[in-house]
Amino acid sequence: MLKALIFDMDGTLVHSDPVHLEAFAKVLKPEGVAITEEIYHSTIIGRTNEAIFASLLPHLPVERHEAYANEKEATFRRMAQDLTPLDGLLNLLEWVEARGIRIALVTNAPRLNADHMLEALGLANRFEVEITIDQVERGKPDPLPYLTAIERLGIRADEAIAFEDSPSGMRAAKAAGLFSFGVLTGLSAAELTKVGADRTIETFRDSALWEVLERRIAA
Fold first, then answer.
1. 173 & 207 share domain
2. Is the per-residue pLDDT at 31 higher than 90?
3. Hey, which residues are catalytic here?
4. Which end of the chain has fewer CB atoms at under 10 Å, N or C?
């Protein structure tokens, strides 16, 4: 029986990756680091800031990594003012909530970003459980964020479905035992299937999603 949907945030609730890419590019330009789409997809998408800045600025101490991470997130929040939920998201949330299915958020983003984005999307206080990177010892690809959400919801992994757009997020969701949809806002179906996606969708209107939901509701 389906009891909960658990969503990643960036690239899943909203196609925010272009704004993140621009923010990284702006902040790292003084260090001579050019952020291309290829670098964004291979080194940044879905990873924690700790891992990202360690990869991009290995010659700098951890303190500088943290300073750059804070600057990047502040830059992103200034730039991310006009955000629109991914097509079909609001309809999906209304549909599951009408059936008593709960919703949760699991993101590697810091709390300040989550609050800003949910407010901009009109989703503030919509999620029963919100797990940000500040609340867990280890972020994705570790399954801990998802396991924490499952525990707080008081359900089993087989009673929930996850939505992810990145390899690290998908690995985390699958390691936590969740049936998972790959959301194709940045990567291909083949790329997300390779790291464990059970199904892939372009938007929340895709028939592949609704077939699974109807089947799980009827179970």
1. yes
2. yes
3. 8, 10
4. C
